[in-house]
Amino acid sequence: MAASAAQEFTLIGLCDGELDTQRYQSSYLTNKVGGSPDWLPVFSRQPPRCKRCSAPLAHVVQVYCPLEASPYHRNLHLFACWRVECCGRSECWVVLRSQCLEAEAAAVQAPSRAAPPQEAATAWCDGAEDWGVEGGAGDDGWGGGVEKQTRVRKEAAVLETEDKPQLCEMDISKRFQELNLAELEDVPIFRPFFISVVEESDLCGEEVDLEHVQKLLKEYERKEGAAVGQPEESRVSGEKYEKTRARHGDVAFSRFMKTISVCPQQILRYCRGGKPIFMSKPPSKMAELVSVCNSCGGSRTFELQLMPALVSLLQRRDGSTEAELEFGTVVVYTCTNSCWTSGSNSAVEEFCFVQSDPDQQLFK
Length: 364
Prior knowledge:
7 helices; two-stranded antiparallel sheet; alpha+beta
């Protein structure tokens, strides 16, 4: 299938309240933090394992992100090892991409619930400038336009009733299997939260919490003994560039802080085909570090990254403090062509790069 054109704007993911599993049955259409992963209906449900210690990984984030002019549902699931010696390592994180034709999903769901109305796949991204700005729970936000969101709302409505969802026998069996697996393997399950979506450009035009931004910057300045944003100006092709005189010389971190200052509470940034923002200087051969697609051997492109404000949301559902992930940013690269074999029931593993946060406590 053809890949979509590079996205020219960045979408910001924000926490939109806790997902009450007693009142709302989430699905693969739901963007969320934590909880159990909602796989597309044709996929197996066994969690991946840590490449370092072989422990089963905890589910961190689920994003529903179909591509423009594509006939496929498309999800990204991020998992991480919660062990202290593992969570900050790239090899201890796994990102899985799963896809499924609308017709395949409808066929599997048919025995348990009515199939949602189908719309032309080519209309999925029409009106993309309206993506998810006012989206509520269950809206897709990342990869669908106005017509796609309408389809998502209709399908989500089928999954939810006013009080509690009416689960079929297959759904109940699936939940028990997931629960038993979690208990036997001691897989931590993080409290689930909805993710809402807004365009970064819209945030730039709104009044932001400047008091919180200044608090972050002052705390950083106190620690580093330097003033962020007091530039040494130089001119290159008529443009001004700022150089931060931080004691440790970490210009990348200062640039990172400045970029997110418009919305420090952002937990995810999405811009397929765009460029990530790094917390510290990335490896000089970053392009070579990003491996080719394991499935087709093609190149990969940046798609999304997790932000440090997410860390404080990752609390175990059972109240235990044993599983606490610490990271700065997790950068995800996916197959440029989003290659897929129709009928496959195995997810494709993509590439992620983890950077630690030198000042994680500022985001808590």
